[in-house]
Write a structure and sequence with these properties.
Order of helices and strands: HHHHHHHHHHHHH
Number of domains: 1
Number of helices: 13
Radius of gyration: 19 Å
Helix content: over 70%
Structural class: mainly alpha
């Protein structure tokens, strides 16, 4: 069940990269406004479901769940929505492939697991691929529709905070149901977004947003938020944090295929080289991990 939940989640996330890029390209909704809508409606769905599966939360855990909301929803979703406006789908998905490595090292830090030279070398190789993407985006000038260095840095930030969530919040996901976790985490994310979103609302023309974009927003809220974030804790309960993040390998495959099929992006030699370096580094790290076990 845990493996099925993770696989479904990252398939949805892969499609979501292309969908969100289309929303960003069409315009009309800023990343901040889109994030608040996402947190509001997805959170409302979780609170609605919680009426049928009530669960009491220990008062001592409320602050921990609030922290999980920051690491698992507020920061990763926000950095993703801003990053997608400055990167192509392929570049974003390739960069996010470093999440398993960051997760492994975050888990190693909190679990006091030693870091070997082989792991360090694997990390260097993967980050070499990311640096290659940054250098190429600088060389190309970051024109309209092209990847910008700031976008890749946001991708790295996205991977880092979500890795910290996977590495540190498993005890909570084991203790509470997915619905209980998500309803509180989305409430925290929604409240944190309001001070940034409210000033933008007067300038947002919701009536000018096309039907196509609203349908994509619906997919973002229902599938890429409500269903996907319902499934993530199910996976966390049953398999290790590093293994959860390993399912992220499906994301670039899905995103790249969808982006190329829709004509939104193309797999160039530069992107392929970066992908090879990132995946090679992850493979080296995981080989080291396997030998230790």
């Amino acid at each position: 069940m845990g493996h099925l939940a993770c696989a479904a989640t990252y398939i949805i996330f892969g499609i979501n990269i292309v969908t969100c890029r289309d929303i960003a390209t069409e315009g009309g909704l800023s990343p901040m406004v889109l994030f608040t809508m996402r947190a509001l409606f997805a959170g409302a769905l979780f609170w609605l479901v919680s009426l049928f599966v009530p669960e009491r939360v220990d008062r001592n855990d409320l602050l921990k769940i609030a922290g999980a909301g920051v690491l698992g929803i507020f920061l990763p979703q926000l950095t993703f929505l801003f990053a997608i406006t400055m990167t192509t789908p392929v570049d974003l998905s390739v960069t996010n492939s470093i999440t398993p490595i960051i997760t492994m090292f975050a888990a190693a830090f909190f679990a006091k697991e030693p870091i070997t030279w082989k792991k360090a070398f694997g990390v260097a190789v993967s980050f070499g691929g990311v640096i290659w993407l940054i250098l190429q985006s600088v060389a190309m000038g970051g024109g309209a529709g092209a990847t910008q260095p700031a976008g890749i840095l946001l991708c790295i930030a996205n991977s880092t905070v979500f890795a910290l969530y996977l590495a540190t919040c498993r005890p909570l996901t084991e203790k509470y149901s997915s619905v209980t976790m998500m309803k509180w985490m989305f409430l925290v994310a929604f409240l944190l977004s309001l001070p940034f979103t409210i000033p933008q609302l007067p300038a947002t023309d919701f009536g000018a947003v096309s039907t196509k974009v609203w349908l994509e927003v619906g997919f973002l809220i229902l599938f890429a938020t409500f269903i996907a974030y319902f499934l993530i804790p199910i996976g966390q309960k049953r398999i290790r944090p590093t293994l959860v993040s390993m399912y992220g390998y499906m994301q670039p495959i899905i995103a790249t295929s969808a982006a190329i099929a829709t004509g939104m992006d193309a797999l160039t030699l530069t992107k392929a080289t970066a992908a090879i370096l990132v995946f090679a580094g992850v493979y080296i790290v995981n080989q080291s991990k396997a030998r230790e076990r």
